[in-house]
Amino acid sequence: MWAQHRQLAPPGRTFRVLVLILALLQPGATGNGEALDGDASLTAPDLLESLPPLPPAVSPAPLLRVQAWPAEGSELQDGQLPVQAAQQQTVGAAFASPRVASLLPPGQGLMLVPDYFDDDAAACTDAEVLRASFPAFSLPTGGQQLALLFHLSALDCAENSVGALLGLGAASLSVACTAEGQAAELVLTATDTDASTRLALPPNSTDGNGGLALLLSLDQQTGSLAVCANGQLLVPVGGSAAAGSSELLQSLGGLSPVELVGAAVVLGARSGSEPAARARVDAAYVADAAFPCSSTGPGEAQAALLRLLADAAAASSGTMPQLAVEQQPGGDATVGQEVLLTATAAPASADDTARLRLTLFGLPPPGCRATECGDLAVESAADTAAGQPARLTVTAAYPRAGRYIARLEATVGRGWVATLDHPLIVRKAGDPGSSSPAEAAPCCRVSPEVVAMQEGRPISDAEYRSGTAQRQATGQLGWSDDYWQHEDREAERLFDYSSLAPPIVDPPLNILTCAATRLAGAGSALLFGASDELASHSHGHNKRLALLPAGFSWVTRANQIDCQEHWTGWQEASPQRLPNGRGGTCSAACTQAGTLQLLRETGMFEQYNQALIAASYGQLSLSADVAVLPEVYIPFNYTSPSNSTFAYYEDLPLQALEAAGEDPWMWFILAPLALHQVPPFRAWSGGRSAGGAVVTQCYPTMYYAVHETGHRLGFRHANMYRLQPGSASAPVDPLGPGETTTDGYSDRTDVMACCRGDYGLYYRLMAGWIGQGSRGQERVVLGAAELATPAQRRFTLWPFDRPESRGNLLALTIRRSADEVLVIGFRSAPHWQDLGIAGGNVAPADSRHNVRGLSVELVRRDPETGQWEDHRGLLDFNMLTGDWPDSLPATAGDFPRDSSFALLKEGTAWHHAASGLLLAFEAVGGCEGSPGLALHNHSAMSFVGFGGEWPGQELPAGKQADFTGFQGLECAQLVLTTQAPPPQGRLDFSIEPGLTSEAAPVAAQRRRSLRMQPGDGSGGQLAAGDGAAAAASCGVPAAPTLRLRLPAGQQLSSVVWRDALNRTVAVQSGASLAAAAAAAGAASSAATWTTPAVTLPALYPFAESSHDPAAGCDAGLASCQLAQRRYSVRLLAPDGRHSVAAISAAPPTLAGTQLSIQVKHYEPQQLTQERRSLSLPLGWPSADSAAAASAPGVTFPAGVVLYNASGGAELALKDSQDAVVTGSSLPASGCSQQWTLSLQLSLTSTALAAAAAQQQGQVLLSVDGGLPSLSLGPSLLPGTPASPALWLRWGGAAPRRVVLPHPLAGLQGSQTGTLRLVLVRDGSRLGLWANQQGGWVVRDLACIPTRLSITYCNHTPNPAGPPPFRPPASIALGAAAAGAAGAPRQAADAGLAWARYYSYALPEGDLAAEGAAGEQQLRSYFRVQPAEGGSGDGSAGLRTVLVAPPKSVSKGSGGGGSAPALPIPLLAAAAGGGAAAAAAAAALCCCWRRRRQRRRQEEVERARALAGLTAESGSSVKSADVSKGPPEYTAVSAL
Question: Which of 1443, 1395, 1400, 1440 is nearest to 1419 (CA)?
């Protein structure tokens, strides 16, 4: 039956204990009219022998029919259910067959134990159950009779105590043990009156391995409740108490089954205030039938009863009802709009009756203003008629936009629940929704941080893209209208409140184990979120929030207080407004009206509530009905009874809160800071007992709100573990001698310090948000026994800072000793921005790629009290590696200067010598299992979001940044080794060139990330190398291809390759590396082996704000340029040794690439470093090689001169209608899939001004009729709208615009400037450089941005991918290109000095040299094809030299095809026939050829004599001038 649940939750864990069975059975007459008696008895050995095996899962079977109970003394046959014949008349036709529900899964049991786990030696695992609760919704309680039957195979009475066995709504049942260790009595207690009766148990009930069968039977018609044990009717203990006991039984007997059971049947203690009995429960059943006491007696009768109940419960699993939810009106709803939900369930059997429940998660009951309202849930009033559909309707209106879940549950009273989740999308007024998806709010997200700002943002709580918000954004905050219309739409992304719907549990049995209540086993810290007394502080939905504005009426000058103002302008209407000294207004009081305005216009409540929902994995939320009280004015000389500065701000507002009758879960007093009463903090909280916090701001910033709420939850401040005496340099074991504290702000990854983080893993555990049980195995505990045993365990940790990870492994807790626990989790830091730019340079602490890693927290007992009191410290692994030297402690024994880099990074390991613990973080990669929530992949590029400013430094306008941490979900793969020996020595390796043909594309190298839905247009942004096809072997590689060489036998666990921002771009797993090592060993007896080659990404990653220039930082800064060519590789060995190489590449040239390599070896006692250099040859054939010259059809990269004024007149582009070059005269580029156009123009200031004023632009050139085209026009970019700019367009797509560099853009008067342009196509990307400044402005032709001010992909990419590469069919210059696809119709007024075409991508390092190169340099170094003929002038005044390979020219063919090698003006004539033209061309070429051959021979000889470049390991590289010919490269590497 359990496997038949309609919607399965993640696989549950196996119960390791036998099942406790309690049973409520109906007292009354037997079938022959005789009264029940207590003669039947069964000894413990008999019970064990007669106990049938727990039934296996069975296929659906026909419902059992009621059989009359046989006469006393007759034998009960299999297939007969012991039900009174009279039941047919008393229950009715609807209950012709009794309904049976098993409270426990088949074959599984429970070991109930009391909560005595302060002793470290006690067993505290998932097997020790404190209680198990089965909700009553699916139990057969709809009739007038009820039987509860429980079978205990063991009842331990070793102690003289009372232990709880059963808890119901109206009563509880406990067992009282005597001093002799016997279970002498059962104690039945009424819940509401605490009245109790003691019932004597049969003798020898718990002797040895004895068992106990308990039956509670209720008959509402007769008003009787009977309790039976082992076949005997239990009677109250004699004496005066017996009379009162009879009254209690009669009172309970008059209840209905629904009233008796209440909300749930609880096995064990209902709360932590009472201990559970020590009992092993094997089975537990609830039925709406009457069973006699004798049915639980000794022998076959009891065994047959258990078998029949199990069969009946299992057989009913085939009767799943069909569920449906209909919504009216259909489609998306609007905030405040009433929605009618109609739920129906059709029973599968004609004998079944259905009960329904519809829960609207995220919506409180109407009018609720309680401390905790919970979610609106409506149940059907009663069971329907047998076989008839059940129907339930609910009308609701949601106050906030988002995605919600309405959960329909249906049951037929047999213990299982069929479930259907109905999603609802609620949109703000004005949101077009599905009618215009491109303009609608996108769906969805589960994290609030990306759209948060410390002081909110212009966003309405009910109106989509409201006019007020737009005016505030563009007026008050100065955001551009372009930003508001596009990027800021991300702020409207709908929040997915479906996380509030808990995981579906199958069966619906909630089990609380010892392991779920302790941090790391018995004797460790008690998780307060799992305790009955404190769980309500950190759990619950729709909790009440109250805001208490306050201020001062005595203020006459703004400098008497911290006068309050906000970009919303609420202070303008304040009755206590003052001039702020800057021409504006501020307020001396936080007001009710102002607070309400902030709630409406800033997203203040939404971001705060969503932060709590996300951090708690949906277990904590606030009601949108926020109580905002009238402002309270605090007198200047108010003196509190406690004479405390804190009380000065607290007393009067809290008195007003009490007078208003409010009892919120959380309150905030909002008041300006009075300078005569300055507290130690700008915000504070009295903790859990206080119930709220004070913030000396009228707008409680995101940090203050979440931080102070953490105190309300019971969290202390977050600190680093401080080493004592410590060291200020690495390497030092981060878990050396040191101290933990409960106060301070040194752990900046945790919001309980400051400022950008969220709650850390330890506090999430303490709050009870991460558990074991119904949501899956979210935590693994290793105790002293596991640490002492040599073993290796592999774990996949899901990121604990992603709500979608719920239900999967989030935490490891390791009991190092009786007084210490290690808490380990993976923090992915998704809400950190991609990087930060400070002063034109990358700010490492602002990059999430530098922050993410394994969080290891040390938790200790308080050294003074010996209690667990949140003495916690985050280990700083930067002390181990020293990778961020500027963040190490300033002095020995101090906290680190910056804890942003404290986490253990992938590809590294930590060995703790004292405990023999080795933690190896192999890589960030794929996740095992499925996310617990829908995974919404999205990004926020160029977004004004949460920058993590320090308190008091929040910038109202914020800053634009890229947030792409939610584009996918990845997990940490780690290996934990116990009793591991310390790593010995260092991990040696060398880096050497790899063959591009052997390297997998970057996309294939990238580690797997979860993407549960199609990309939204930003799927490729994170992947370095996306948008660029792998260069063919005959092209110029844009980035190096490398591999590693290692000694034979050296194993590796992982190799992690990273780019300039420490983004992981490729991971080589231990398995793939082992295969490579094995292959190398099998192939030869070499002393070394090599890893597979990896091609590193060529593009600089998308940078903060993703605006032009594409690099994101000042292109003129050397540090920025250098950062574009930095990489690193980390190697990790199974024994914990690890090393890293930082690789810096010089600008690539045709001669090759020079790499500077700094290797760092991590050893426990030292860090050793060495510098190496490596020269990477280009690896393509030489133009002068014999093979290239002799092999017919062989193509290799080459160039051709399209036009060269050679001191004559420049080509006037505006008059060049005939300047068209056909592709047949160009060198072939099909193999390289690359080409380059290099040209030099001259422009006057007048021409530039005219181009900048021409809104349609002026064309310079086009390739293939506009694929692409290059033009001049106004930039229209933010900050430089009227400046002249280059437009690079691909057909009709939006142009990429690059502002012309100075001094060209600063020409004045009649000045003339030179513009050197280089246009490069490399696979599916386009690069543009102007006077050596520029970059890859079109990163992927499959997704060209639709707007000119951005460089990122802002729409769904072409599903077919980028257009296939094809060699250019034509190149048109100037007027000849006018009107091409997407190109302007007017040509630019510019002069063309020269133009050259290359069938390869001209490397960035050669841009300057190519522009200044002479004829010999162009031929010998840049491979411009030598011509066989001369040059001539055409009708358009062109002086053009077309160069082709010597072998091809002699055959009358061009370098790239079969067309003759003719000057441009003659191509048209030759193509159209005309012998005269052809003869003239031949004569011209012949004359030119002889002169060219002589000059070429002289230049080649000189180049060979002067060329040279050497590379030596450990030294710098000396490069020759490219004018001296192609240098020779030598690759040197050493182990």
Answer: 1443
- Of 778, 870, 772, 758, whose CA–CA distance to 821 is shortest? 870
- Rounded to an integer, what distance in angstroms lies between the CA atom of residue 1171 and that of residue 1141? 9
Looking at residue 75, the DSSP 8-state letter turns out to be P
Half-sphere exposure of 103 (CA within 13 A, CB side): 37
For residue 914, count other CB atoms closer than 10 A to its CB.
11
What average pLDDT does range 1491-1520 have in this prediction?
37
Rounded-to-integer distance, Cα 848 and Cα 828, Å: 8
* pLDDT tier at 86, thresholds 50, 70, 90: very low
Q: How much of the chain is helix, strand and coil, in % rounded to 5?
A: 20, 30, 50
- SS3 call for 374: coil
Q: Which residue has the higher pLDDT, 747 or 844?
A: 747
What whole-number distance in Å separates Cα of residue 1457 and Cα of residue 1370? Answer: 13
Integer Cα distance of 1407 and 1317 in angstroms: 9
Integer Cα distance of 1097 and 1087 in angstroms: 31
Give phi and psi for 259, each to the nearest 5.
-70, -40
Q: In sequence order, which residues have a C-beta less than 8 Å from that of residue 1415 and are 6 or more positions away? A: 1495, 1499
The two three-digit tokens of residue 1318, written as one number = 């280089």
Query: 450: Cβ–Cβ under 8 A, 6 or more apart, which residues?
Result: 490, 831, 940, 943, 945, 946, 963, 965, 966
1357 upstream amide cis, omega within 30 of 0: no
E-strand stretches of 725-778:
738-739, 772-773, 776-777
Model confidence pLDDT, tens digit, residues 403-460: 999 999 999 888 989 999 999 999 999 999 999 998 999 999 998 877 778 889 999 9
Say which residues have a Cβ less than 8 Å from residue 1382's Cβ, sequence separation at least 6.
Answer: 1266, 1269, 1289, 1290, 1291, 1292, 1293, 1295
- Residue 506, amino acid: D
d(CA 1058, CA 1066): 7
Q: Report the percentage of the chain scoring pLDDT > 90.
A: 51
Dist CA 1111 CA 612 (whole Å): 36
Q: Is the pLDDT of residue 1027 over 90?
A: no
Closest by CA position to 702, among listed 607, 615, 606, 626: 607
Q: What is the pLDDT of residue 243?
A: 58
| Residue 912 neighbours by CB under 8 Å, 6+ apart | 733, 735, 918
Q: How much is the pLDDT for 1180?
A: 67
**What is the pTM (predicted TM-score) of this model?**
0.85
The pLDDT of 1455-1459, averaged and rounded, is 31
Q: Which residues pair with 813 in a beta bridge?
A: 781, 823
Q: 1052-1103: per-residue pLDDT in tens?
A: 999 999 987 788 889 999 998 998 888 877 666 678 999 999 988 876 655 5
Q: Kindly indicate the confidence band of residue 637, based on its pLDDT and cuts at 50, 70 and 90.
A: very high
Residues facing 1136 on adjacent strands: none
The residue with tokens 């409180």 is 364
Q: Name beta bridge partners: 1373.
A: 1261
Q: Report the candidate in 776, 926, 971 with the shortest Cα–Cα distance to residue 10.
A: 776
The reply to whether omega before 507 is within 30° of 0 (cis) is yes
Euclidean distance between the first and the last CA atom of the chain, given in angstroms as a whole number: 63
Pairing of strands 110-112, 128-135: parallel
DSSP 1469-1480: HHHT--HHHHHH
**Helix (H) or strand (E) run with residue 45 in it:** helix 44-50
Backbone angles phi, psi at 193, to 5 degrees: -110, -10
Please name the amino acid found at residue 1183. A
- DSSP bridge partners of 427: 334
Amino acid at 906: E
> What mean pLDDT value characterizes the chain?
80
pLDDT tier at 97, thresholds 50, 70, 90:
low
Rg (CA), the chain: 39
DSSP output for 839-884: TTEEEGGG-HHHH-EEEEEEEE--TTT-S---EEEE--THHHH-SS
